[in-house]
Amino acid sequence: ASADEVSLTAPHVAHERAVEAFNCVLPEIKSAVVASRHNWDFHEPKMWSRAAGLSDEKLTAFTVEDDLVEIRTGMVSYGTIIFGKIRIPAVNDELGEGFIHVRIHDPPNRGEEDVTFHSILTMEGKRDADGHPHLWRAIQVKAEPLEFFNE
Q: What is the pLDDT of residues 39-49, one digit of tens each?
């Protein structure tokens, strides 16, 4: 699916079904956060720089019930794509609170047991004339809109 093919709902507070869906894949989300940070720290430490000095445990000390602050959903032929903005409680720096943007998928007709984790948004932006990025951000600012991403 692409942004052109999926019409997302307006951003809103997570409803019970979304909370259940994110809880089904919470261990995978936390594992992906840790893996992404370790991978990016090797290649470009600026990507997770807002988490510098935090242990993996502190970085992933978020819960769905307390920290899933916003979702957007989109229907596709193979189910529902759910985008979520999750607060990272340990990050509150000069940019304010920190959030990760997460994409999960809920296939139709089977409840939550088949929900799958898809990805975490990692932004490379402010590209120069040669296309090289000068901004790397995995932990988003509160004002960063929750938009379609396909990583």
A: 999 989 999 99
3-state secondary structure the chain: CCCCCCCCCCCECCCHHHHHHHHHCHHHHHHHHHHHHHHHHHHCHHHHHHHCCCCHHHHCCCCHHHHEEEEEEEEECCEEEEEEEEEEEEEEECCEEEEEEEEEEECCCCCCCCCEEEEECCEEECCCCCCCCCEEECCEECCCCCCCCCC
Residue 87's CB: how many other CB atoms inside 10 A? Answer: 19
Residue corresponding to tokens 């998928």: 105
**Cα distance between residue 78 and residue 56, in whole Å:** 34
Report the chain's C-alpha Rg in angstroms: 15
Residue 50 and residue 139 in contact, taking contact as beta carbons nearer than 8 Å? yes
Residues, the chain: 151
Report the predicted TM-score, pTM, of the whole model to 2 decimal places: 0.92
Q: Give 73-104 pLDDT, tens digit per residue.
A: 999 988 999 999 999 999 999 999 999 999 99
CB atoms within 10 A of CB 36: 18
Cβ atoms of 139 and 99 within 8 Å: the answer is yes
Q: What is the rounded distance in angstroms from the CA atom of residue 96 to the CA atom of residue 133?
A: 23
